[in-house]
Write a structure and sequence with these properties.
Chain B contains seven helices and seven strands; from the N terminus they run βααββββββααααα. By secondary structure, chain B is an alpha+beta fold. In chain C, strand 28 and strand 29 form a beta hairpin.
Chain lengths: 263, 222, 786
């Protein structure tokens, strides 16, 4: 690990000023960044720790929208009465991330901004039509996740909160890789007034919506299973843990299980 | 890891061939490519900073050109080293076929090996990344050569790729098409495609492929 | 009369579940591991490993690294050669004990010319801090011209395969064969049924919780080396380093292995880093410390298993086994390292296991591959044997159409056949394998399976079960234990064995407490220091209870005998009239007695030690030359499988073990449960994966190498012990350290295959990850549809 300067600002403006330096990196829990630094695979000149900025914490309900501050830890999301009441699928999801240590360190903003293809939160953000709020704008979930580890965030832009409009119902079903705990596949189903959204994480290079399954659910909201043709292996990830065909199978099965959990 | 790909580019074969002789174009097609230098006619060096998620690593690549058959095919063998991060080695065969008079089909078959730390701790991501980088590269190339002037769209494929250290202003560029410094490839590049014809072009195509493999990255899990 | 449960001796004595004396300091964080050692002037080493599986080193550019802050030295293989540093040989080859010749390798501590595996050591940076050393190591440019690599033993044996060693054709290091080929072929010729399968025992890593570490020191005044190393076998390390690497007398090297956080066989040998820190310490005149990382451990530790085998069983029309045949290839990796010949041999010699099989022919070829070396790993060959045999038994039952329990009953060696000599010449002294199996079936409620199966199927899952038996061979070589008494009458045990999780600091004092009657909490235990312990062979292969126990018994008997002479003097009695019981010497009806501690004190009187007795009391016991002992038992596993996802849930796991005389049942159970966890790890998750084309290691972190965790395991492993004393050692003990690891893989795999049998799945290669299980189901359904 090469040396770096460590900043822990208490004001958002100070953090943003520090992050104007291209060589500075924000740290929002560090569950991915710290191991990366230890392996010598990134050499930032400075780390700007967002943990000291009070406005980035907290879970609030206003006008039917649950806003979760970017630095809110997974454990706090999983145990929040507000989230449990209005977004039970999200609380369930947060309680399944990593292990207890990770849930007490990792943050929703860090996870969303990192956009690991096997992370859990992106599925919820996408299926719940969430808005990713940054220091300068609000980005819809559909526009936010642009590719593997890639998002619409510009250099120096940080996530400050995620806003979830309360759905009618929602549920998450995950099949964790027994090796790492990451999702081999995870499916979040959000039922909204405008329709049902089904987002799949872990199975492909980036979270995506299973539009064919959404179409089936539009006709039959209680569909108990999904045909292989609705979600095939094309474009899904294949690695030493699982083939694309297996991930497709998991996504279909988990979609059905998430739908079953809605009731 | 074996990869194959086929891309239809909306430009005649000679134009494709010519255009990809321009190192600046290719530099813009390779995410994070900072420099391409020519050591000997068949030996090239490229420097790339790959940034994927939390990872940022600098690679140095060397390329050897073999079986050159202009303007249709060649085979390139090369390797790139990211120091302690690992290395990439590989070889690729690239084939250009005219598709009518106005289009070209580019096909490649490549075998790549990612080694060292990248393989040891990033294996879950290798295939997906290689594919993504290949897609990005050829999408960018096709966009430039296919006459899509809105290169911002193509550039958006790789929003975090560092821009070249200095914008390239082609000597023969039309004044009105001068480079606007916006971290994006210059829209005038197609007009700047060099007219020369040598082994450089395929070298760089395959160098790009190799850099695709080299920049295969990983993300650590907590 | 067979008893299940424990025969309990004195409080803190034999058979008592005495809590582990060492645990207080371990859980309180006051254990002292090599990584905790900080010495004045200590420098830090980081090793540069080969990123290529096979290739020629063209150049090593150390100039950038050498100029970096804090860097004291950068050393390469050329420096080692220039300093006359040797390399690491195998502990032994078959030829050393009259076996066939083989290709003997020497592993350089730093490779100068040709790398043969990922993780070959190429250079070392020594710097003021570990971080500086690591940064500089990353700045060393190693230019390697790659050569084709081969990573699986089958591929290595194929015609035209790349050669790991140019003068070792076919990558075949040696071939071992046992049994009677003609008799076996005849058995197959007349068999009513033959079943056959091909198996692969996945390559796995020990992953001790404490990675390997070493601190080397050199004192120029005495030319003496001190090595602190996380090892199971400090005297073995000393011998190799003295004789083969540094070329110095053995007594110029002191090896200290303090608290060691697990070894599992992996730490039974010297590693290049052990030699590097000593060599560097001598060159630099400073202590040098190396602490391995988890990724370095996965890459650079010796691995276990990696055997492929074609196995076949011939049976008559009643399901009685007639013949057993197995042809295997066992991967060596790039070097013959450590005691890797042992697992290769055990995998052949222990193949017949608990079954009465008249004709056996086994053959294995130890095969070089461009991988990290293999070595002994918990079970060491016996898991490979048990896996083949128990898989064949289930296959045979299905092929013949008889119950899987019945076929075992028809073939188990019965108690009244003891002593029993197998067709490959191993003689078992004792055991009642059928009783173990019956007890295990009963504890597992085997007969209640149909109802549980109905419940499982009601939720759309499948339920399967298996029963297996295992047999272990425990107690290799010889060993030495010393009892050193002090002037107050206290005793210190100096152990030739080495506990790194086994609880020896608890159990050996239990024995001494029982035999000498000295207060349990006053008995001190020392191990792991070649300057304190005169000699020993360390701990591995479930050897310590028998060898150290027997040696300790001899030392105790000697102490009692010497004390008897002293007691006779003190009690003014004829030596033949002195009795010893419960820690007391007595004469006649016990009206004149003296305690053992008081007798010891008499050995330290400044004047008046009787003629013929020494000043002070130290006794030494040795053990060796006996037959090994044969722990055995039965496992039952019941699983539920989700056919939609391939997920496996272990619903119950029951194990009954004959461990001979039980010394501490709590520690026995801990060993058995821990062993099962490692066996289930191999069966369900663990795999060292190399890319078959490039030889690159793909499972280099715990993100990709699957360790068993609490949620992998059944909620409860029901373990019961049985005492059938071993007849060939004075304590009657049988080893317990490897038992669980041996039978767990076939039990789990057979249970899963039983669940999937209705779907047409007949085999899944370990590890049985959900992806592999589902893929097998998917393929079977496609076959069924075709």
């Amino acid at each position: 690990m090469t040396p770096f300067v460590y900043h822990r600002p208490t004001q958002l403006a100070d953090a943003l000023a520090l992050l104007r330096d291209e060589q500075a990196r924000p740290i929002a829990g560090g569950m991915t960044l710290i191991p990366t630094l230890k392996q010598g695979l990134a050499q930032p000149a400075a780390l700007v720790d967002l943990a000291g900025i009070d406005v980035l914490y907290g879970i609030r309900l206003a006008d039917g929208v649950i806003e979760i501050g970017a630095m809110t830890r997974h454990y706090d999301v999983a145990t929040s009465p507000l989230v449990i009441a209005h977004l039970p699928g999200l609380a369930d999801l947060a309680g399944q991330i990593g292990d207890l240590q990770v849930r007490n360190r990792g943050t929703i903003g860090g996870s969303v901004a990192n956009n690991d293809p096997a992370a859990d939160y992106p599925a919820a953000v996408l299926a719940l039509c969430a808005e990713v709020v940054t220091d300068r704008r609000s980005i819809s979930a559909d526009a936010f996740f642009t590719g593997m580890f890639e998002t619409a965030l510009e250099p120096g832009e940080i996530v400050t909160a995620v806003r979830f409009p309360a759905p009618r119902r929602c549920a998450y079903a995950k099949f964790a890789n027994p090796v790492s705990g990451y999702a081999l596949a995870g499916v979040f189903v959000g039922v909204h007034a405008e329709g049902t959204r089904v987002a799949v994480t872990g199975a492909g290079p980036c979270v995506f919506r299973a539009s064919a399954i959404e179409a089936v659910l539009a006709r039959d909201p209680a569909a108990a299973s999904f045909d292989a043709a609705l979600l095939g292996p094309d474009g899904l990830a294949s690695d030493l843990h699982a083939s694309a065909a297996y991930r497709a199978q998991l996504a279909r099965v988990l979609a059905a299980r998430a739908v079953a959990r809605l009731t | 890891m074996k990869m194959t790909g086929e891309y239809r580019i909306a430009a005649p074969r000679n134009r494709v061939w010519d255009a990809i002789n321009d190192p600046e174009i290719l530099q813009h097609c390779i995410p994070g490519c900072e420099a391409i230098t020519r050591n000997t006619p068949t030996n090239w060096t490229a420097r790339v900073t790959a940034k994927v998620g939390p990872v940022k690593a600098r690679f140095q690549g060397n390329i050897r050109l073999e079986d050159l058959d202009p303007p249709s095919s060649c085979r390139i063998v090369g390797e790139g080293s990211g120091g302690a991060a690992g290395f990439a080695r590989g070889e690729a065969t690239v084939q250009l076929d005219a598709d009518g008079t106005d289009a070209t089909v580019l096909r490649y078959t490549a075998q790549a090996q990612v080694g060292g730390k990248l393989a040891q701790i990033g294996s879950r991501l290798i295939d997906s990344f290689a594919q993504r980088y290949a897609d990005d590269f050829f999408a960018q190339l096709a966009a430039i050569l296919g006459g899509e002037r809105d290169l911002a769209v193509a550039a958006a494929v790789q929003p975090e790729a560092p821009a070249p250290s200095a914008p390239h202003v082609p000597a023969d560029a039309e004044p009105g098409a001068a480079v606007t410094r916006d971290d994006r490839p210059d829209a005038s590049f197609p007009a700047s495609a060099a007219k020369r014809f040598d082994s450089q072009s395929f070298t760089i195509v395959v160098l790009s492929l190799l850099l695709v493999f080299m920049t295969v990255m990983y993300a650590l899990k907590p | 009369m067979l008893r299940f449960g424990v025969n309990v001796g004195a409080k803190f004595g034999i058979g008592q579940a005495v809590r582990r004396a060492e645990d207080r300091r371990f859980v309180a964080g006051s254990g002292r591991y090599v990584g905790d050692i900080v010495l004045p002037g200590m420098a830090h080493a980081v090793v540069v490993y080969s990123q290529h599986a096979h290739g020629m080193i063209r150049s090593i550019d150390t100039s950038r690294a050498s100029a970096m802050p804090g860097v004291i030295a950068v050393l390469t293989g050329a420096d080692a050669v220039a300093d006359g540093i040797g390399g690491l040989p195998p502990y032994f080859m078959p030829a050393d004990s009259g076996g066939p010749p083989g290709y003997r390798t020497i592993r350089p501590i730093l490779v100068a010319d040709r790398v043969r595996c990922i993780g070959d050591r190429i250079a070392v940076v020594i710097a003021e801090s570990e971080r500086q050393a690591r940064d500089a190591a990353a700045a060393i440019d190693v230019d390697i011209a790659p050569l084709p690599a081969v990573v699986s033993p089958d591929a290595a044996a194929a015609p035209g395969a790349p050669l790991v060693w140019d003068d070792c054709p076919g990558n075949a290091c040696f071939t071992l064969a046992f049994g009677d080929v003609a008799a076996t072929e005849a058995a197959f010729a007349r068999a009513a049924h033959v079943v056959a399968l091909t198996i692969h025992n996945n390559r796995i890593s020990a992953n001790s919780i404490e990675p390997r570490c070493a601190v080397g020191c050199f004192d120029p005044a005495t030319a003496g080396f001190v090595l602190h190393t996380s090892s199971q076998n400090p005297h073995g390390v000393r011998k190799v380093l003295a004789q083969s690497v540094l070329h110095v007398p053995e007594n110029d090297i002191r090896v200290i292995s303090p608290d060691v956080g697990g070894g599992f066989g992996m730490k039974a040998d010297a590693y290049p880093e052990d030699a590097i820190v000593l060599w560097a310490a001598r060159r630099l005149g400073r202590p040098v410390k190396w602490v391995g990382t988890r990724s370095e451990a996965l890459m650079g530790d010796n691995h276990g298993r990696d055997q492929t085998a074609d196995a076949a069983l011939a049976l008559d029309e009643h399901g009685r086994a007639l013949g057993l045949r197995l042809t295997a290839r066992h991967a060596l990796g790039a070097y013959v390292a450590s005691a890797t010949v042992a697992p290769i041999t055990f995998a052949m010699r222990m193949l017949p296991g608990v079954y009465d099989i008249p004709a056996v022919a086994v053959r294995t070829t130890a095969t070089f591959t461009n991988c990290s070396p293999t070595g002994p790993y918990r079970g060491a060959g016996r898991p490979e044997a048990c896996f083949a045999l128990e898989r064949l038994m289930d296959m045979a039952a299905r092929a013949i159409g008889i119950d899987r329990v019945d076929i075992r009953r028809r073939n188990l060696i019965s108690a009244d056949q003891m002593p029993y000599t197998t067709a490959v010449g191993v003689t078992y002294d004792s055991g009642d394998f059928g009783a173990m199996m019956d007890r295990c079936l009963s504890l597992a409620d085997w007969s209640g399976f149909p109802e549980r199966q109905r419940q499982t199927e009601a939720k759309g899952w499948l339920r399967g079960r298996a029963v297996t038996s295992y047999l272990e061979s425990a107690g290799v070589f010889n060993d030495r234990m010393e009892l050193r008494f002090d002037p107050e009458g206290n005793v210190t045990i100096l152990a030739g064995t080495h506990s790194h999780g086994q609880g020896h600091a608890t159990v050996f004092p239990q024995l001494i407490h029982e035999w000498l009657g000295l207060p349990y909490d006053k008995i001190k235990y020392i191990q792991g220091d070649t300057d304190k312990v005169a000699f020993g062979r360390g701990t591995y292969a479930a050897r310590s209870s028998m060898l150290a126990g027997t040696a300790l018994h001899a030392a105790a008997q000697d102490a009692i005998a010497k004390g008897r002479t002293m007691a006779a003097q003190l009690l003014d009695a004829d030596i033949d009239d002195i009795m010893f019981a419960d820690g007391q010497y007595s004469v006649g009806q016990g009206n004149r007695t003296i305690g053992f501690a008081d007798v010891v004190k008499a050995f330290y009187r400044p004047i008046g030690v009787p003629g013929g007795l020494s000043l002070g009391l130290t006794t030494i016991g040795t053990a060796g030359g006996q037959s090994p002992n044969f722990p055995n038992g039965a496992h039952v596993c019941e699983v539920e499988v989700d056919p939609a996802t391939g997920a496996i849930h272990i619903d119950r796991y029951v194990v009954v073990d004959d461990v001979g005389r039980i010394l501490n049942p709590m520690i026995c159970e801990g060993q058995i449960v821990g062993g099962i966890a490692q066996g289930l790890g191999q069966a369900l998750l663990e795999a060292i994966v190399y890319d078959p084309d490039s030889g690159q290691l793909l499972s280099g972190s715990f993100s990709d190498y699957g360790m068993p965790r609490p949620d992998t395991m059944p909620l409860h492993i029901e373990s019961e012990l049985a005492e059938i004393p071993c007849k060939t050692n004075v304590l009657g003990v049988k080893g317990v350290g490897e038992s669980g690891t041996i039978a767990a893989p076939p039990t789990l795999v057979n249970a899963v295959l039983d669940a999937l049998w209705p779907l047409g799945v007949t085999d899944i290669a370990m590890p049985l990850t959900p992806a592999r299980v589902w893929t097998a189901i998917d393929q079977a359904s496609k076959r069924g549809a075709a």
